[in-house]
Amino acid sequence: MDMRTRVNTALKQAMKEKAVARLSTLRLINAAIKDRDIAARGSGEDDGGVSDAEVLAILGKMTKQRQESARAYEEGGRLDLAERERQEIAVIEEFLPRQLSDDEVEKAVREAVSETGASSIRDMGKVMATLKARYTGQMDFGKAGPQVKDQLCAGGGC
Which pTM does this prediction carry? Predict the structure, then answer.
């Protein structure tokens, strides 16, 4: 079942169960997917909607935004709002694949570096593109970037 279908099925189920908070989050997910569909249509990429990889990227971005918001709310003493953000994160993460552990990310970076034949920091884009193609939604690319840089610099490419 594709991601869009999974989200819509969960949305219908939340409506039946009258799960207000869950329903709200699922509607936000659906709206973000539709926004991306509209943007793709506007740029001439009308191929029936966004792919599962793009949906995973959207969900990853939504999760990251909510984590930052929760942190800001905690720092501001608004624990009630921080908790609501965490509840939204929990709903969004139901649709994301299992996150790779630090060791698995390190191994994936090593494999991507060797597969692409990357030898210097100039090849970082190729390595990141390979990682994004394979592990969208499974790793935080903001944290993977420095690891890729360390791998390339360790090989003397800096």
Answer: 0.73
